[in-house]
Amino acid sequence: MASGGLQLLGFVMAFLGWIGIIISTAMPQWKMASYAGDNIVTAQALYEGLWMSCAMQSTGQIQCKVYDSLLKLESSLQATRALMVASILLGLVGVFVAVTGMKCMKCMEDDQVKKMRMAVFGGVIFIISGLAALVATSWYGNRVARAFYDPFTPVNTRFEFGSALFIGWAASSLAILGGSFLCCSCPRRETSYPATRGYPKNASSTGKDYV
To answer: GO CC terms for this protein (predicted)?
Structure first.
């Protein structure tokens, strides 16, 4: 029962992490214009994401523009896109594999060993998915931080971490932790020892002692 509860907890955490990765990938707030220092606060806030850039007016109206050409984008942004998309696809595969191996599901009930292996394999896929998203968000965040502290970067073009990065970090951590729980939910194999052989009792002497 304990391993089943740990397995269910791991799947829920990994699934929520996968949903968070999808949300983080779609959000345009990967970095936002910084108004620190001598920057003048304007009537709009600027955001940039993996797929589009947005400007929010003081009235609350948001205008977004999708990036025109894939070839014009920086190679680092293209790599970040690829890692996040790969993370989402791996997570989708991990969901189906882990669901098949869940103890509460009736799939593959006849072979518990294969069912257990499917749950562990699903956990491994979730871990890889979380690592891909963690690398992508950390790499992007490192680029934003380096550009912010670069003295050659104009003050009015500096950006800070957006909310999508924080969601991506939290989601990737959930996916990795949930996948680890799925891998640890596998019960240990008990070592079977051969049954001890009983020795027959000495048959009591039926004969009478003669003097």
So the answer is: bicellular tight junction; plasma membrane
**Considering the domain boundaries, does residue 52 fall inside one?**
no
**pLDDT tens profile 108-127:** 566 667 778 888 999 999 99
Crossing angle between the packed helical segments 2-26 and 163-184, to the nearest 10 degrees: 160
Q: Is the pTM of this model over 0.70?
A: yes
Contact 132, 90 (CB under 8 A): yes
Our count of domains for the chain comes to 1
CB atoms within 10 A of CB 134: 20
Please report the beta strands in 7-90, taking only residues with DSSP state E, as ranges in sequence order. Answer: 31-33, 44-48, 52-57, 62-66
Q: What is the pLDDT of residue 105?
A: 66
Whether residue 16 lies inside any domain: the answer is yes
Query: Strand runs (DSSP E) across 144-197, as ranges?
Result: 159-161
